[in-house]
Write a structure and sequence with these properties.
It comes from Pengzhenrongella frigida. Helix 17 packs across helix 19. The protein has four domains: 174 residues, Beta Polymerase, domain 2 (2-Layer Sandwich), CATH 3.30.460; 81 residues, Orthogonal Bundle (Hydrophobic Seed Protein); 160 residues; 47 residues, no CATH class. A hairpin with a 2-residue loop joins strand 5 and strand 6. The strands form four sheets. An eight-stranded mixed sheet has the order 1-10-9-2-3-6-5-4. It has a two-stranded antiparallel ribbon with strand order 7-8. Helix content is 52%, strand content 10%. It is of the alpha+beta class.
Length: 497
Amino acid sequence: MNAAPSDPGAAGAGPAVLADLQRRALGILTELAPAAIELGEVFAAAGHELALVGGPVRDAFLGRVSADLDFTTSATPDQTQALLAKWGDTHWDIGKAFGTIGAGRRRGGEDVVVEVTTYRTDAYDPSSRKPEVAFGKTLEGDLSRRDFTVNSMAVRLPGLTFVDPFDGLADLAGRTLRTPVAARQSFDDDPLRMMRAARFVAQLGFTLDPEARTAIEEMAERITIVSAERVRDELVKLMISPRPRRGLEVLVDTGLADHVLPELPALRLEIDEHHRHKDVYQHSLTVLEQAIDLETGPAGAVPGPDLVLRLAALLHDVGKPATRRFEENGGVSFHHHEVVGAKLISRRLRALRFDKDTVKAVARLTELHLRFHGYGEGSWTDSAVRRYVTDAGPLLERLHRLTRSDSTTRNRRKAERLSGAYDALEARIAVLREHEELAAMRPSLDGGQIMAILDLKPGPVVGKAYAFLLELRLDRGPLSEAEATQALQEWWAQQPR
């Protein structure tokens, strides 16, 4: 892999570090080379430039193979579409308005998917959420419009010439996020880049450049012009990254979270002079990390990264600021914060355009996260255990992990006591599962049988009867059909006509 004459190198990094990065990149790019070089030859034959750019180049230097191949070209979208139609088995133009054409082909038993975008020099209207697409003339100009220098590196094809006009390789070696142009200009052009900065801190483990951090602090409010869907997508990527805590801290410390997830910085409650309660914000970040540690592999009960579990772990205490009370005995209470928190979470996630299932699941976990604490105060009946399982439903495995993660006490004896109590609860659930169908908790009689026994037609009364039998099932466990019939008839006899 050759360096372009215009490449300033990455002079600030040590030769050994740069040599190691280049060796890794060469190995990865060699794997990609057959498809990439072939495509480069197709464009070159037609008189156009083509370069692999952005994430795939960055990931190559990090020793990772990127799933998608992103290219930029001097060809117009129409010219690109014509070339890809000949090169690929399929092609699509859904991004054509932004200069992007996609294509796919199968070679050597593997699917190769590419996206090729015409050189761009986008500009953003300060009052608009969308860029005004303008096509550029040069690769260097295209690279200058990108978010960070580590994403502003390219490899020209088919010659595999490395182009790095903004010292992205040096920043990669130093694990630094820096903008290729002035940070204020970059973030003003596209405010979502501020969210992306936090995401890359979490995703790549990089540190934010001081100029970029200062610009975000000064411009945080500008994120409000970005659509909720785009903000949500960046937040999701941050949350499922390897180190979400670091990215979340960037959001909070720079003020971005005040505009996109204000419930999180609101957890930084003032610590009273007597230190009667823990730092809820730091507690929540620790719960998130502990929940991540309890995620499982693909074959486990909660395969990671699990967005629902992570959101619930982060946000489960957002109801505390609104419910905090200082008691006369010197204590602090947060009565019903789980109920208040569930409502706040539903409102926030809906505002961020999360899907209904995610909103419902995260809110429900928040509502249930304190339920276990009554278990350690006394012996639960089998009925209480059944209700715990039934109320959690398909969220039970996540609730197990959220509840365990919610213990951040430094008191070893207390931590061991809580862990032991939950071990005992899970053992109780396992025993009941073995003897009862907890996963499909149903009465012994179905709706048709209820109508036949009580001589009813379909209607609300049948639903009331079914609810009675379900409560009976939770209280007493499995009943025979005869026992359920007798109980139903006794209940019916007491109902007003």
